[in-house]
Amino acid sequence: MGNKGNVRSSLIRLLWHRISEDDLPGLSAQLAYYFLLSLFPLLIVLFTLIPYIPIPQQDMLGIIREFAPVDAMQFIEKTINEIMRHRSGGLLSFGIIGTIWSASNGINAIVRAFNKAYNVPESRSFLVARGMAILLTFGMIFIFLLALILPIFGREIGQFIFSQFGYSKLFLKLWNTLSVVVSAIILFVVFTGLYWIAPNVKFRCRSAFPGAAFATFGWIVSSLGFSFYVGNFSNYSVTYGSIGAIIVLMIWLYISAFIIILGGEINAFYSEKYRNNC
Questions:
Q1: What is the rounded CA–CA span in Å between residue 14 and residue 4?
Q2: Using CA atoms in the order 254, 112, 208, 250, what is the torsion angle rounded to 10 degrees?
Q3: C-alpha–C-alpha distance, residues 168 and 147, integer Å
Q4: 237 near 244, Cβ under 8 Å?
Q5: Per-residue DSSP letter, 235
Q6: What keyword terms does UniProt attach to this protein (predicted)?
Q7: Rounded to whole angstroms, how far apart are CA atoms 27 and 260?
Q8: pTM, full prediction
Q9: Could you say which DSSP state residue 198 is in?
Q10: For residues 223 and 228, what is the distance between their CA atoms, to the nearest angstrom?
Q11: How far, in Å, CA of 83 to CA of 85, rounded?
Q12: CA 202 to CA 205: how far, in whole Å?
């Protein structure tokens, strides 16, 4: 018990020190900016794939809608609808390359933030680093699509199985809880992949679990908490007018970025602790 308490105390002290030393507020602001620039190109790719996958358009933003503040979600949906309504044909041909390149900017910023957490330089060439960011972007698109397909077909399969026993209503009551659990598992997989692959450090996949677990729990709780606060106690449109929705979106992205970077710092702490003990 004493050793675990010392580890937790050391982790808290180090994180508090790293927040100032590595300028986590500043890095989070930069990452939130890149997230904003990457968000809509990434969503454009997803929406362009709609004709080729069995997912209704209204379900495409389901996971984001589940956690995002209402004002931010309305702004995202409005912007995407405008872009898709006025887009030119053939986006899946040459145009998608530029879209993927833009979407990978957010991943590229995460790579730099994680390298700073581990105090390592980026020794990989520009093409290798950018290629990895693009591959991670494709990976996130695949996992995002999987996250959409699983709940849709999972609901249908669950209803079919439970209806055979006459418990279809019970399943529908349990579905909201089950969908949150599935979303949490998918987020954990996404964060594990990011923490394992993105830094310019070699370590085992399981070494990314502490930061991934923290980021998953922290992101869900902070997103739901901020969404509840915006929906019940704050009205940014009164203060900022027509750009209130953008402010809400940026604050949400900033909180998300801070938690993701903090997860990287947690993994860096345990990685350093392991090296010191060896």
A1: 15
A2: 10
A3: 23
A4: yes
A5: -
A6: Cell membrane, Membrane, Transmembrane, Transmembrane helix
A7: 11
A8: 0.78
A9: S
A10: 8
A11: 5
A12: 9
Q: Which residue has the tokens 């199985």?
A: 161
Whole-number Å distance between alpha carbons of 96 and 48: 9
Contact 198, 109 (CB under 8 A): no
- Comparing CA positions, the residue from 276, 219, 199, 263 lying closest to residue 19 is 263
Question: How many residues are present in the chain?
Answer: 278
- Condensed to tens digits (0 to 9), the pLDDT of residues 44-70 reads 777 776 666 656 656 666 667 777 788
Pairwise CA distance, residues 160 & 179, whole Å? 17
Gap between the terminal Cα atoms of the chain: 22
Measured distance CA(237)–CA(70) in Å, rounded:
12
Q: Which of 64, 111, 110, 46 is nearest to 249 (CA)?
A: 64
Residue from 263, 135, 270, 101 nearest 187 by CA: 263
Give the model confidence (pLDDT) of 66-107 as tens digits. Answer: 777 888 888 888 887 776 676 655 555 555 666 677 778 888
